[in-house]
Structure formats: C-alpha cells, structure tokens
Specification:
By secondary structure, this protein is mainly beta. Helices cover 7% and strands 41% of the residues.
C-alpha cells in the first residue's frame, strides 16, 4: 500500500487507471486500486487534484528492490500513455 499525492492541475486519478510505476531505473506498467469508500454518487472513487489517498498498485511484474530504492522508498506514478505507432 502506498500514499499517493495527485499534483494540482492534474486530472483526477481514477480507480483502475493504467499507470507507469517508476522506482530507481525500473519502469513497470500497472493499475491503481484506490482504497476507501465509494464516492458520493456510489460510483468508483477517484483522487482529486491536490489530494492525497492510499492506493494499492497492481503491477504487471514484481518490483525488484534495490539498495537505493529501499533507502528512499519513493516512487513516481505517471499515467500510461501508449507509444505512437511507428
């Protein structure tokens, strides 16, 4: 489980969003599973810009711990954007 801060000016981060997980030199695709109650309309939750929430990352492969990564335990999560077709 991780705490995620969504930047001001970013789009809301929705439950099930496809993301790129960056830690050290590793880049792994995955999905975000938001932890918490449903939104006011009973729909799936989202993290608003400028907000903080707990998430579970469901990565497509295990993240291999490295000494530097373990020491800082910080990571970057970016929205997945498919590469343009060549």
């Amino acid at each position: 489980m991780r705490v995620v801060d969504v930047l001001h000016g970013a789009k809301p981060l929705k439950h099930g969003a496809r993301v790129r997980f960056h830690q050290g030199t590793a880049e792994i695709l995955g999905r975000v599973a938001l932890i918490g109650p449903l939104d006011a309309t009973g729909g799936l939750p989202a993290i608003a810009p400028g907000a903080r929430a707990f998430v579970r990352l469901r990565l497509e492969r295990p993240a291999r711990p490295r000494r530097a990564a373990i020491a800082t335990s910080s990571a970057l999560i970016r929205r997945h954007s498919p590469s343009p077709a060549a």
